[in-house]
Specification:
Layout (H helix, E strand, L loop, with lengths): L1 H20 L8 H19 L3 H33 L1 H15 L2 H16 L3 H8 L12 H48 L11 H10 L1 H14 L5 H12 L9 H11 L3 E7 L2 E8 L8 H31 L6
Antiparallel strand pairs: 1-2
Helix pairs in contact: 1-4, 1-5, 1-12, 2-3, 2-7, 3-4, 3-7, 4-7, 5-6, 5-7, 5-12, 6-7, 7-8, 7-9, 7-11, 7-12, 9-10, 9-11, 9-12, 10-11
């Protein structure tokens, strides 16, 4: 029971720190090391395999080595730390939980975009939002920058916050690390371009599978957090109508819920590498995003974050109290 209490304490402190300071730029982050490992594995795979089948097999091996190795290392280090000293175990688990949560960093990036727009510094806002999205941002107007920031905020709310919390609740630090590793693999290899179609297909598929429940939980938490002043009804309506309007089977769930609650519109025409792309419109009856909507969205994100944390912390306690956590 002592280990259970320490683990829950570590997750609580990590959540608070993530909200307060996000991801400090000079903080030693294991995801950067994982990214370097994935790069090395990708280069090795491309030297060894050329055929589509070979690249798919190597993509599977990269996931097994990178994600499986991350879990194995986490279990070894945590076991050793707790055997050495309970305080050492607590600090290590706190560090791990802090590094898998990205809600605070996501919020601070969107807040920076909002501050630049409020100050009338459109060029700075475009540069800042370019760090969040893959579309061309150089010619976006204020509404376009606002929409890009808000789409990123809610699309990534599942991967960056609710997903890690969900897997931390089910399996502690090792399972949260596994989810983060797979998510990182998908972000680096899971493109639908010809270059990554075969190599990254397994990473993309397993990421979709792991994100299935968190994305739907995120949509539910968003609707509950924004239930006042008709938000609950609008969120449910938009979710029902538009939850499948995305290439990903998961991304449109939190986006549709948030668009409905906030009564704004997502999707539409965007430029990617100079080419016009028409994305499905989510919550078509909503109004166009404006600068002021960024602050409403950040408030909704904060309430959703707190609700998700409390609910998943209770699930974590229940799992651990009944001996259902195997790490």
């Amino acid at each position: 029971m002592e280990r259970t209490a320490l683990s829950i304490l570590a997750l609580t402190i990590a959540y608070v720190l993530d909200h307060l300071i996000g991801d400090p730029s000079r903080f030693p982050h294991p995801v950067r090391i994982l990214g370097a490992v994935i790069d090395l594995l990708e280069n090795a795979a491309r030297r060894l395999f050329i055929s589509p089948g070979g690249l798919k097999f190597s993509g599977f091996l990269i996931v097994v080595i990178a994600a499986g190795g991350s879990v194995f290392l986490t279990i070894i280090l945590l076991t050793a730390a707790y055997r050495l000293n309970m305080a050492a175990g607590l600090l290590l688990e706190l560090y791990i939980f802090f590094t898998v949560l990205a809600g605070g960093d996501l919020r601070s990036h969107v807040m920076k975009v909002g501050h630049y727009l409020k100050a009338g510094r459109l060029e700075k806002a475009r540069s800042s939002v370019a760090l969040l999205v893959s579309r061309d941002t150089g010619s976006l107007n204020e509404n376009g920058v606002s929409r890009a920031a808000l789409e990123s905020l809610f699309e990534n709310s599942s991967d960056g916050l609710v997903g890690p919390l969900f897997f931390a609740a089910l399996g502690g630090a090792p399972l949260a690390v596994f989810y983060k590793a797979v998510n990182t693999l998908d972000s680096m290899l899971g493109y639908k371009s010809n270059e990554y179609l075969n190599l990254g297909c397994f990473a993309a598929r397993i990421d979709d599978l792991l994100s299935f429940i968190p994305a739907r939980l995120t949509a539910l938490f968003i609707i509950l957090a924004g239930s006042g002043q008709g938000g609950f009804r609008r969120g449910l309506q938009a979710l029902h109508a538009d939850r499948h309007k995305h290439q990903s089977p998961n991304s449109a769930w939190p986006e549709a819920a948030a668009a409905g609650v906030l009564d704004i519109r997502f999707g539409g025409a965007d430029f990617h590498q100079g080419k016009l792309r028409e994305q499905p419109v989510i919550n078509v009856q909503g109004k166009e995003s404006e600068q002021k909507d960024i602050w409403r969205a950040l408030d909704l994100f904060w309430r959703m974050s707190l609700l998700a944390f409390i609910c998943l912390l209770l699930i974590s306690y229940w799992f651990r109290a009944w001996g259902l956590n195997y790490f």
